[in-house]
Design brief:
Radius of gyration of chain B: 14 Å
Largest sheet of chain B: 6 strands, mixed
Strand content of chain A: over 45%
Number of strands of chain B: 10
Number of strands of chain A: 11
Order of helices and strands of chain B: EEEEEEEEEE
Oligomer: heterodimer
Structural class of chain A: mainly beta
Structural class of chain B: mainly beta
Radius of gyration of chain A: 13 Å
Distance between the termini of chain B: 37 Å
Distance between the termini of chain A: 36 Å
Order of helices and strands of chain A: EEEEEEEEEEE
Largest interface: A-B, 22 and 24 residues
Largest sheet of chain A: 7 strands, mixed
Number of helices of chain A: 0
Helix content of chain A: under 10%
Strand content of chain B: over 45%
Shape of chain B: globular
Number of helices of chain B: 0
Chain lengths: ~110, ~110
């Protein structure tokens, strides 16, 4: 199994630009999670999906952030417009079902200049 | 101005010694716990898990202990190796989403 696949691995963009992060969960996993990791706050849950449906998006910082899961094998996290304070490592994780162990991708290192 | 960030607990051990990493969790309703290892530039990696109906679980060189009375979790690593150097996170869940601790940075001295 290839595990959770995220792209891109690194993204450098300028303030105001749109950023789209992508995630392919492990095949057969029904739950997908987006986390953000910073030195200031550690690992923060942004949003999670169960069976492609967003269940809890209370961690999404503001309206500039949006996430979609159009099918069981793909999810995106979009930031528009991006700001320097969005710079962080963004992780996608998936699990067989809610409450089961999470498998993380390698993350996307985002730098907003 | 001075930047304020998470103060990661640190642990330094000699190669070959045993390591013990501790975690206090907060939610009494949590019934499933996991330890993750995160190496620099990588995502968190599953190490071992334990459910609330157990108080101890052993893996290969790792043991997790759960004390529900005081809401405490620990990870023991036997014969610590340089490859064990990483940040270790505990995670708890009451059944929906996971809540992660701030992490402990383990450094193994050759």
């Amino acid at each position: 199994d290839a595990g959770v696949i995220q792209s891109p691995r690194h993204e450098v963009t300028e303030m105001g630009q749109e950023v789209t992060l992508r995630c392919k969960p492990i095949s057969g996993h029904n739950s997908l999670f987006w986390y953000r990791q910073t030195m200031m706050r550690g690992l923060e849950l942004l949003i999670y999906f169960n069976n492609n449906v967003p269940i809890d998006d209370s961690g999404m910082p503001e309206d500039r952030f949006s996430a979609k899961m159009p099918n069981a094998s793909f999810s995106t996290l979009k930031i528009q417009p991006s700001e320097p304070r969005d710079s962080a490592v963004y992780f996608c994780a998936s699990s067989l079902s809610r409450g089961e162990k999470l498998f993380f991708g390698s993350g996307t290192q985002l730098s907003v200049l | 101005g001075e930047s304020v960030g998470l103060h990661l607990p640190t642990l330094s051990v000699q190669e070959g010694d045993n390591s013990i990493i501790n975690c206090a969790y907060s939610n009494s309703a949590s019934d499933y716990f996991i330890w993750y290892k995160q190496e620099s530039g990588k995502g968190p990696q599953f190490i071992i898990d334990i459910r609330s109906n157990m108080d101890k679980r052993q893996g290969q060189r790792v043991t997790v202990l759960l004390n529900k009375t005081v809401k405490h979790l620990s990870l023991q690593i036997a014969a610590t190796q340089p490859g064990d150097s990483a940040v270790y996170f505990c995670a708890e869940t009451p059944g929906n989403q996971f809540y992660f601790g701030t992490g402990t940075s383990l450094t193994v001295i050759p």
